[in-house]
Amino acid sequence: MTVGKGSLQYRKVDGWGELPGGVTFDKISGLAVDSRDRVYLFARTPNPVLVFEQDGAFVGSWGAGVFTRAHGIYIDADDNVFCADDKDHTVRQFTTDGRLIRTWGEKGVGSKTGYDGKSPETIVRSAGPFNRPTGIAKSPNGEMFVTDGYGNACVHRFGRGGELLLSWGSPGSGPGQFHSPHCLRIGRDGRVYVLDKENSRLQVFTQTGEHLATWGDLNRPNDIFIDAFDRIHVLESPGQITVFDLNGGIICRWGRDEPFAEDGEHLKRAHTMALDSKGCIYVAGCALDYIVKYEPVGASRSKRSAQTIGLFETL
């Protein structure tokens, strides 16, 4: 079965992902790919980080007892693994085999935003890191950016040494404001692309927080990657992938009305996606407990850019 449009067409790989006995695909909140094209699933399960070879062979798992609730995962060019835990208000850095390197945020302590722990509508002010952080990205110079998140309304920028440099954003729907900033990526042009989920839009910023543009015509976007041709792929909650050019023009859309499996289901409530070096796209859902691999057909095959390793949603 082929999905997609024009030069961006993909073929579903049947039966991807071999799991050992007693382990299931359950509540997958994030996906990332390392430099060897190993695929990392971040799930709300007893063993939250599941690692697979590109062909779907199971490698192992780690993270038991570490996380309160998995949300976003990101792997940088040096194979550092970053995990956002939205319930204990932390971002952690690991090696690829699960050794903890560093933690940002105070475990179990959210910043003071007025958030009541249930509804983002109760946020009255933005604050420092963190209150339910959601997404992570690295810039080409090694700085870290975090969307924060379900209990906050801003983006935080950290220096190469891990120190907080600045934060921007406030609750609302105006330019530069957020209602559940959910995921982000930094393009080769240096711009910061932020998914503003509950405002159903993508906002573009400089790395100092200056608002440059707003792209609408999205439906509760969850995840984002930028490919080697600077095309910006956005995963929306109804199971649709929208591809933009750098000016915000829509190149194509696919997925919403195309079956992903033999049972005729669709990419409903798709939560996260990632891209590997061969141009294969992995998509997973937190509600339906699945992961799907699509391999490119013909002209859509491409090498991955340094910014395409990634993740994220909440349910």
Please give a structural write-up.
The chain has 315 residues and is an all-beta fold. It has a single domain, classed as Neuraminidase (6 Propeller). Helix content is 0%, strand content 42%. It has strands at residues 2-5, 8-13, 28-33, 39-43, 49-52, 58-62, 70-75, 81-85, 90-94, 100-104, 133-138, 144-148, 154-158, 164-168, 181-186, 192-196, 201-205, 211-215, 221-226, 232-236, 240-244, 250-254, 270-275, 281-285, 290-296. It has a five-stranded antiparallel β-sheet, with no helix packed on it. Strands 3-4-5-6 form a four-stranded antiparallel β-sheet, with no helix packed on it. It is globular and about 45 Å long. The two termini are 29 Å apart. 48% of the residues are buried. The model is unreliable at 299-315 (pLDDT under 50).
